[in-house]
Amino acid sequence: MALSTVNAIATGEGQEAAALLEQTRETVNPQLRRTVEELPGSMRRVAMYHFGWEQADGSPSAGQAGKAIRPALVLASAQALGGPGGPAAADAAVRAAAAVELAHNFTLLHDDVIDEDARRRGRATAWTVFGIPDAIITGDAMLALALRLLAEDPHPASAGASARLASCVIELCAGQQADCAFEQRTHVSLDECMAMAMAKTGALLGCACALGALYAGAGPDEVDAMDGFGREAGLAFQLIDDLIGIWGDPEHTGKPAGADLLARKKSLPVVAALTSGTEAGRELAELYAGPMTGDQVQRAADAVERAGGRDWAQAHAADRMGRAVHQLSRAVPDLGAAGGLLALAEFVTRRTR
Asked: How crowded is residue 302: how many other Cβ atoms within 10 Å of its Cβ?
């Protein structure tokens, strides 16, 4: 199917994706919250705060647990590959969707500590409120909860799903380790940065789609194709996320303007600029050689754009989405049956915050 047809299917993706995400939250959050509430003592308090369900003092909060993109991919994949029984397959995959969201939030708790991020979802990060040890330990417990959810699931796909999620977590940890190592290096190649992003972000989105396929009873080829779809869409997601990390509106991101530049992160548009061989790329390298002030952050953002990093990231995100659609067509030849997946993919790659 031509990409123009795909775009036509996904027309109005903002509204459709928003509805899918809201439906996912309504479906998955009760399971997610029940599971989190099983944590003992202070870990439960940290987790409830992190998900936005409680204030730091334990009083109720009307906060949002997150966008629910990954659990939505689990359910949409199960529905797309489940044929006439798609809705039932999606219902059966709720525990898997909650497990993926728990694994994702394990990474967020740890990433906030590693990156020393003070804000997430518009309020103080858990480690700044409860301290580094409690944030790290709670993240560890969330990962254990995710694997236990799958281990205790009577569904025949649960064993394969558990093994796949565990392998995915090892891969994304390797991606995080590479990301941290890049900050200590003067030169990072674009290929290295792309491999890191695929591991750190693409792997979990691919796993989410693969788990949905497993719960729909799909065969190995279809499961692998869905993993490929999620990975490619995940890389497109990371490219857009990196752009937001430089040019995102703090009112929407909940983080300071140019937060990634202030931290001198080797994000994809930054590495594209640094390796561009342009005068602007050399200017950016000089700025990255030492701590930056607010004025220098703006100069760095301008240098990334003049060196072509912004345009490269936008074009490459579109290219990766084309690859994602090709992978999806291997598992779901009639892409009309995968409208939900396409809407979600369009949403995450066209968002501005």
From this structure: 13
CA dist 91 → 21, 82, 290, 333 (Å): 15, 11, 51, 23
Q: Can you give the pTM of this predicted structure?
A: 0.90
How far, CA to CA in Å, does 245 sit from each of 27, 153, 241, 293?
30, 38, 6, 16
H/E element, 137: helix 132-151
Provide the CB-side half-sphere exposure for 256 (13 A, CA): 13
Residue type, 257: A
Sorted by sequence, the CB contacts under 8 Å of residue 148 that are 6+ apart come out as: none
Q: Mean pLDDT across the chain, nearest whole number?
A: 91
Nearest by Cα to 31 from 105, 93, 85:
93
The residue whose two tokens read 């892409």 is 335
Give residue 64's pLDDT. Answer: 74
Q: Span 45-51, mean pLDDT?
A: 97
